[in-house]
Amino acid sequence: MINSKFKKKYRCRIFLKDETDMKLLTSGTRLYGETTDSTGIVFMTPYKPPGNNLRWIGIVQEPPAFENENPLLINVYVENGSITASGFFNNQHTQIPVDIVYTTANYERTPFKQSELDILWNKKMLIFGSGTGGSKIALESARAGVGNITLCDPERLEFTNISRHEGDMLDVGKPKTQVVAERIYRVNPAIQICSYFEDIFDRSLNQVKEIFCCHDLVVAATDSRSVQLLINEFTHKFDIPCVFGGCYEEARGGEVFFTLPGEKMPCLACLRGGIKQPERKNDIDYSTATGPEDYQGQPGLHVAVDFITCIEVQICLGILLKESKTSKLAQMIDPARNFILIGGALAKGFYRFRKPFDIFYQPLSDHRKNCSVCQPNWQIGMTS
Question: Containing domain of residue 96, as a range?
Answer without folding.
Answer: 10-104
